[in-house]
Amino acid sequence: MFVELHNQIKVEDLLQGIVVQSGNDACVVVAEAWQAAWNPSPNRRTPRPSGCGLTHSHFMNSDGWPDPQHYSTAHDLAILAHHLINEFPEYYHYFSEIDYTYHGIKQGNRNPLLYKNVGVDGLKTGHAEGPGYGLVASGQREGRRIIMVVQGTDSKQSRSDETLRLWEWAFRNFDNYKIVKANAPLVDAPVWLGARRRCPWPRNRMSW
Questions:
Q1: What do you get for the CA distance between the two ends of the chain, in Å?
Q2: What is the pLDDT of residues 50-104, one digit of tens each?
Q3: What Cα–Cα distance (Å) separates residue 135 from each residue in 8, 114, 150, 158?
Q4: Domain locations in the chain?
């Protein structure tokens, strides 16, 4: 996002630089500030991301720059997306911004599905020599949200085409169905030598 050295930058600007512009410099600034505030010791360690369920991820840096020990999985990226959407809804709107201007330089969001009017409202593209071009996307249609992770495409155009194809396929071939209501019994289970011959199961603990 072309941040200037020795300058004071609002956190909101840095967040937009990370989310909208994919700014490596913004990632580094935020990471260094966070480390200085929470772990000021000289032997700083990269925190393991297991706190929100990312059991197959290990992050060596803040911007995803290639490193042999820097890795994640499609499943973990979907968990992370779900965590962002549900735990930090006040920040999620940044992911749907089409462009952002900082220091007089306007840059567009790199998520190709945001421009196709298909209900996508986030999240993030990625690219590295090994994994290729990828996208973690999410959006809604008729109140139903889907989170999608695509990795391994060989170009920006291929990423755009394949993610759109998978996006439409997911909404076309899957749906949400209500199986049971919360705290509602599934069956009337027979009771042997009990005060009653049948008992609803499972039972709400508060009703015992």
A1: 59
A2: 567 888 988 888 888 888 888 899 999 999 999 999 999 999 999 999 999 998 9
A3: 31, 12, 5, 11
A4: 11-173
Q: Which CATH architecture has domain 11-173?
A: 3-Layer(aba) Sandwich (3.40)
Supply the pLDDT for residue 192.
87
Give mean pLDDT, residues 190-196. Answer: 86
Query: Nearest to residue 165, comparing CAs of 86, 127, 112?
Result: 112
CA distances from 64 to 22, 27, 175 (A): 10, 9, 34
In this predicted model, which residue has the larger pLDDT, 157 or 45?
A: 157
Question: Among residues 71, 56, 80, which one has the least CA distance to residue 130?
Answer: 71
Return contacts of 196-202, CB within 8 angstroms, 24+ apart: none
pLDDT score, position 153: 95
Cis peptide before 123 (omega within 30 of 0): yes
Beta-ladder partners of 189: 199
